[in-house]
Amino acid sequence: MRDLNPSGLRADGLLLQDAPFLTGDGEMARRMREFDWASCPVGPVEQWPQSLRTAVSICLSSRHPIEIWWGPQFARLYNDAYRPILGVHKHPQFLGRPGWECWGEIWDVIGPMLEGVRATGKATWSEDFPLMMWRNGYLEETYFTFSYAPLWNEDGTVGGIFCACAETTPRLLSERRLRLLRDLGAQTAASATATVKEACEHAMKTLGAGIADVSFALLYQLAPEDAEPTLSASMGFVGSEQLAVAEGSTWPFAEVVQTQRLVRVALPEAHAPWPGGAWPEPSREALVLPLFRSGERTLQGFLVMGVNPRRSLDDAYRDFFELAAGHVATTLSSARVFEERTRLLAREQAALAEAERQRSRLETLFLQAPAGICVLRGTDHVFEFANARYIELLGGRDVVGKPLREALPELKEVIVPLLDRVYSTGEPFFGNELQVPLRRTEQVQDYFFNFIYQPIYDPSGTIEGISVIAFEVTEQVHARQRSERLTQELEATNQDLDQFAYVASHDLKAPLRGIASLSEWIEEGMADKMSEETRHQMGLLRGRVHRLEALINGILSYSRVSRTREKLETVDVGALLAESRDLLAPRPEASIVIGGGMPTLQVERVPLQQVFLNLMSNALKHAGRTDARIEIACADADDFYDFTLKDNGPGIDPRFHDRIWGIFQTLEARDKVEGTGIGLSVVKKIVETRGGRVAIESEVGAGATFHIYWPKRPRGHV
């Protein structure tokens, strides 16, 4: 292969061929080549030990965030993937500088960890570790999963520390906020039997459990008879002075009413600072959000919530606040419905003289409701009242004054038993996506409804009727059914594709075999007339035919990896490796050594064996020596088994470590070593679709070690 780096490039005054570990097209590779290392604690590039050169090479070629701490001052080197972690204030001025200059705000946390690794030589592991960073102009709440591993000098001392890290802040914040939203959602169900005052208090108490994201909260109610919103509940304020400042603030309620959207407010400095929630700093801004009645655009109040002073208000954070406000609005709506229903029931239990007035008020309340609402009286379920939406759901039929059996004869077999059950037990009935035959036109068709049957009591406590609230969900049910059908059709299409690929590959390979056979016949028939050059060309012809056949098989295998899953079975990996070695039948001079301690897994047997066969055959093919040796071992790697296949072959230049996994990629001419360039890409695709990952360690002339990180538990298997 030709050197992929342009000649003439320099790294710290050296030809790139003298510092190949600084090659690369990324920003950090360029900066490291141009950096004056002699002016920083790392020292001139010519004096870098091999361990640092190797670590920097891995760092620059990796797409995973990596940071290197070098020397007693823990001078910093990092790659492009690590760059976003530095935010807008820590790049590039701290390249090569001591670690405490860059991360002074967290040095009391990570400094001892780094010193411990340098003193003991033992690696650390930190998962979802909280770090309060100053990287974007404010002290920011962040979380990381990282490991500090020693980088050894040739004299056995720890020269530096290698850190592979990943920021888990978005995931942890999302999980934390989701828990709070779930609690608010659960509060909605509880509010079905709570007063509005209790609902307000419960909502604030629930928000108080999430002060890491909601620094404080103010709940204002807006009643039709009130000209101004009234503060009903608050959360997060310590002392009357602090609450008085908040209550006396001028919130932009008018703007919220006009836009019907949340409004962002910068909080002014006050004598009593604004609560910071879980953090000692005061909140710098708040959001004012509208609270609408459920299913309506009618405002019932406002919710003011403080923003975490250690997080910026990004889109995900805004969405969280809007969802939280939606849950609170639903809670208040449910409580209001409960209070209204309680008042209605109380009035129904009043004197008979009040019954007519109560019934009239009920009709007025429900006439324009978005749900279909009706009242059925007596054991014959006579329609006493039905609002416009309910009549619309029935196709415009006039049902008031008629028993349900007569007004809707097509429903009596389905609905009457449910109504009788409510009448006899006194328990409400909740229907979810109930299929109902209904005549809206000349023909009876099936429709789907969600509904509630609620018993109505007379003053003596006897059930005298049933109130009905119904929502049609026919379109939603049909949409889900269409989705299920499309899924089934997709599965059938995948099966057709598999069959097509099999037939196509068979039809393509048949003429190829004919070409190979024909070339052999020609060579046999003209054996006395062919020159050595002609025989060589005929050999090349057959080689290309075999290569094309192998390519077809490889492409077919690669295409099936992610779409085809087999049954899980218990597999002894040691026995599987021994079987694979026997299938390959290496030369007597070659050896495949299988280490002990191999696990037993619940896996798809054939894909796992294909991974090992491809790696072993690849190592034998490219060994370049008759005494090829492959050593296979297994180590524990947390949630994975780390299977390693180490060979004594020619090794692979680190510049090509990423390239070898690509499809159709080979590092030698195909006429020199027969191959399709698909084997390792199939290995990578099999492993990654099963939840694992692959890696390689290799230097030119030092053999290669392939890592297969296979999950201990099956993932993504249906």
From TrEMBL:
Keywords: Coiled coil, Kinase, Phosphoprotein, Transferase. Transmembrane segments: none annotated. PANTHER family: BACTERIOPHYTOCHROME, TWO-COMPONENT HISTIDINE KINASE. This is histidine kinase. It is an enzyme of class 2 (transferase). Residues 338-365 form a coiled coil. Gene3D superfamilies: 1.10.287.130, 3.30.450.40, Histidine kinase-like ATPase, C-terminal domain (3.30.565.10), PAS domain (3.30.450.20). Its EC number is 2.7.13.3. It catalyses: ATP + protein L-histidine = ADP + protein N-phospho-L-histidine. Residues 503-714 form the Histidine kinase domain.
